[in-house]
Fold this sequence. Notes:
By secondary structure, this protein is an alpha+beta fold. Helix content is 23%, strand content 43%.
Amino acid sequence: MKLADFIDALEKAASKYLLKPRILVKTDNAVKARIEISGTVYIQFYFNQASNTSNFVLVGWDKRLYGRDCVGGNWHRHTFGDSKVHDTTGDGANDVTPEEFIDEVFEILLKEKLI
């Protein structure tokens, strides 16, 4: 995926929840963006088109609560409740779009009554 396509996908996915990503850093090959959910909870996205690296993370109270990472085309999931775990099996190894990740995050936030 190209950088511009990733940013477009992120903006479209955020708009589904009436949110807008804030670009924190952007270079020719990479972007770091944040979607604020509340004063203490946000979703952060990092994408690098040159290295094929993606990091999507739900952060709450300055801690990773949940995440999905892709390094060199290989995805893994940091599970909610034990975000240090690297789940590389089944669903944890599936490719995830920004929209799918945001959907997962809102499912978690609602289930755990964090919003």
